[in-house]
Design brief:
The protein is built from 17 helices and 18 strands. By secondary structure, the chain is of the alpha+beta class. Strands 1, 2, 3, 4 and 5 form a five-stranded mixed sheet that branches. It has a five-stranded antiparallel sheet with strand order 8-7-6-9-10. Helix 15 crosses helix 16. It is elongated and about 115 Å long.
């Protein structure tokens, strides 16, 4: 008999420190003893180990065949020995025999140790995998352990995960010891253990922050987030809808005195702006809302099949509608799923007779007024006005020409845009203002693939 002292105490310590269950530990010890026995006697078939978890007593049992004459002692036992040991059975039967050795050799003990360690490691990996697999799609809290090049190693408690550069919020700097929230997007079990994919830049991270701060979204299902578009580190747009006529979606998400949205912005840890707007099944109203904080005069649907629309804005709202480096209209396109062409009121007046339009809402302003959420509407408008003011301040710091505006709208830097136009057989003179003919050529060159464009040769708005 083998006696393992303080087995329950050891098991309790392993459970507390490494989350190893008693049953897993017992299984590892039993398997290790069989491996040690096989190392000494060269036999594993028909051999098993039985460990009493309460007393720590362990025995090794071998199943042998009863024969008249023994040829192989490892698998056979004589009928005389069976009778002498008081066992039951006849020739041709099998019997379980206690073959526990008095001691094991050094090599056998090392083999047993390796088996136990391997089993403990495998059990620990499985525990961590099962624990975090249930948290996929949720926020988890962690502490920045250290900085590794351009990545951060984040301690999530039972495991460490790497926050790669592409999953970081651009412009955000973390330090060792910082407490951070991250979104767990995936987990993979490998031979080296579970590998977790975490992110702070994905749209889902922002959605989970809203669920955390706005119980009407997660718990009560009163408000839904129907669409989201995010340019991490710069701006995000969140379209919300209320399932209760007495609850304003935007005002509820903003919170009393803006407390909820401020907590969300604080969790983003940088200057990223968040626009909360009303979602609508009506594409005209939804597109108009998506352009906020800019004021929209009119929305025209040019093709429902290809989802293309024209948004008309006042001249002084043109830069705000575009956003810095085109971020506002780019997010509006991603939020709504519509290709948007922005025109100033002056440019629209010149081109409206030549435009092919399926639908236009002439009472858009009145409709948007009616859609304002009750109760907290004025607060939401104040928040939008503050964002608009902040955006305008940014715009004043970045003077750009109409050519630069067009470049950003199509996703190019100004110096790259001229070369791209040349490839499309459009020649421009950077030192001269754009004329109508050149603007028309640029629009035609990108007509099949642009998602948003702005044309106004007199516009000197800042983006």
């Amino acid at each position: 008999m083998i006696l393992i002292k303080d087995l329950k105490k050891i098991a309790a310590q392993l459970k507390a420190e490494r989350s190893i269950e008693l049953g897993d530990l017992v299984g590892a010890i039993e398997k290790s003893l069989v491996a040690a026995y096989a190392r000494n006697y060269g036999q594993m078939e028909g051999v098993l180990s039985v460990l009493n978890a309460e007393t720590g007593e362990c025995r090794i049992i071998a199943t042998k065949s009863i024969v008249d004459a023994v040829n192989d002692e490892t698998i056979e036992i004589s009928i005389e020995q069976v009778r002498a040991e008081g066992l039951l059975g006849a020739v041709g039967d099998t019997v379980e025999v206690d073959v526990t050795p008095e001691s094991f050799g050094r090599v056998a003990i090392q083999a047993a140790k390796n088996v136990i360690l391997q089993m403990i490691n495998e059990s620990e990996k499985a525990y961590v995998y099962d624990k975090f697999k249930e948290k996929i799609g949720q926020l988890v809290n962690g502490v920045v352990q250290r900085v590794e090049g351009m990545n951060y190693l984040v301690n999530l408690g039972d495991v460490e995960a790497t926050l790669t550069r592409r999953d970081q919020i651009p412009g955000e700097t973390l330090h060792s010891g910082d407490h951070v929230r991250v979104f767990l997007s995936d987990i993979t079990l490998t031979n080296r253990g579970p590998i977790l994919r975490i992110s702070r830049s994905c749209p889902e991270f922002l959605i989970e922050l809203f669920k955390l701060e706005v119980p009407e979204i997660k718990e009560k299902n009163i408000i839904e987030i129907n669409a989201i578009a995010r340019d991490a580190g710069m701006r995000s747009k969140v379209a919300v809808y209320s399932n209760h006529q007495d609850v304003g979606a935007v005002g509820t998400c903003v919170g009393h005195m803006g407390t909820r949205i401020q907590n969300i912005l604080k969790a983003l840890s940088n200057e990223e702006k968040v626009d909360i707007l009303n979602w609508s099944v009506d594409p005209i109203a939804f597109i108009a809302n998506s352009m906020k904080p800019a004021t929209v005069s009119k929305v025209l649907i040019t093709s429902s099949d290809s989802k293309t629309a024209i948004v008309v804005v006042p001249q002084d709202q043109l830069s705000l509608a575009i956003g810095k480096k085109g971020v506002n209209v780019r997010l509006a396109v991603r939020l709504t799923g519509w290709k948007i062409d922005i025109l100033s009121e002056e440019k629209y007046a010149e081109e409206k007779d030549s435009l092919s339009v399926e639908a236009v809402d002439s009472s858009l302003t009145a409709r948007l007024e009616n859609e304002k959420p009750s109760g907290s509407a004025s607060l939401a408008d104040n928040i939008r006005a503050e964002l608009a003011s902040s955006q305008a301040d940014d715009d004043e710091e970045d003077d750009e020409t109409p050519l630069s505006q067009l470049a950003h709208m199509y996703g190019f830097e100004p110096n790259e845009f001229v070369s791209e136009l040349a490839k499309r057989s459009v020649t421009v003179n950077e030192s001269q203002p754009l004329d109508d003919a050149t603007i028309a050529k640029i629009r035609a060159a990108f007509n099949q693939e642009d998602k948003a464009c702005v044309v106004d040769k007199d516009s000197t708005g800042d983006n």
